[in-house]
Specification:
single chain, 232 residues, alpha+beta, outer membrane lipoprotein receptor (LolB), chain A, eight-stranded antiparallel beta sheet, 16% helix, 43% strand
Length: 232
């Protein structure tokens, strides 16, 4: 049984469809079209993917499967093309450092899990929240909460900041990317759709944040278009 939630997270979970309703499903799938400058910088072009099981990946019949402890790329016949344990330790963490396919698989795996699971997963045990100052975005005041993820959960970094609109929906998520030179980023979500009673965004856009706190609008690191959501 979960403990008492921060009031803003409690409101946000209800606005997104509710933690209890989310728990009725075992998983979610979506079609994802990803762009942005990060993939060119890291030398790793990305193909459309469903959830954290990515196919195609590199070749038409290859599939990537990610878990926090293990990532692997397999061929259509089931043979293993490449695999790696403890993928978080294998990165060149410099800003311009290149990523190999297993680096990409690990990054894409944990990132897409985070994006599909939040904010619902905050109703699970082990997440800690504290209120932070609101921010302004396109004429709206967004209320904020900083969430500390459990140590066992793999994501961009342990503490991330989440900002919600007056409707309770997530509009912005700020974090530093540990595996990418601790680069600070602002992640915007929009164009929500209803999926079996749960609310999910169909547009995501990520910008790096400059040292003065402003967005690097000339560096749109990642864009994500989502469609064909399915809960199962």
């Amino acid at each position: 049984m979960r403990g008492k939630l921060h009031p803003l997270l409690d409101e946000a979970l209800e606005a997104h469809g509710g933690h209890d309703h989310w728990r009725n499903f075992k998983g979610i799938a979506s079609t994802i079209l990803t762009g942005g400058r990060l993939w060119e910088l890291k030398g790793t072009p990305l193909t459309p993917v469903p959830r954290t099981r990515v196919t195609p990946f590199g070749e038409p019949d290859w599939t990537m499967t990610w878990t926090p402890e293990h990532v692997e790329i397999t061929a259509g016949d089931g043979s293993i093309i490449a695999e790696r344990d403890n993928g978080r330790e294998a990165f060149d963490r410099s800003f311009n450092g290149r990523w190999d396919p297993l680096n990409l698989a690990y990054f894409n795996g944990y990132a897409m899990w985070t994006y599909h699971a939040t904010p619902f997963v905050f109703g699970e045990p082990g997440y800690e929240a504290r209120e932070i100052a609101p921010i302004e975005n396109e004429g709206q005041t967004l209320r904020g909460v900083a969430v500390l993820f459990p140590e066992s959960v793999h994501s961009h970094t342990r503490e991330q900041r989440f900002y919600f609109g007056s409707d309770g929906l997530l509009r912005r998520q700020d974090y530093t990317v540990d595996v990418w030179a601790d680069t600070p980023a602002a992640h915007f979500t929009s164009d929500y759709v209803d999926v079996d009673g749960l609310k999910y965004p169909t547009r995501r856009s990520v910008f790096t944040i400059k040292s003065d706190g402003t967005l690097a609008r000339d560096f749109n690191a990642v864009t994500i278009d989502l469609s064909d959501y399915a809960l199962f």
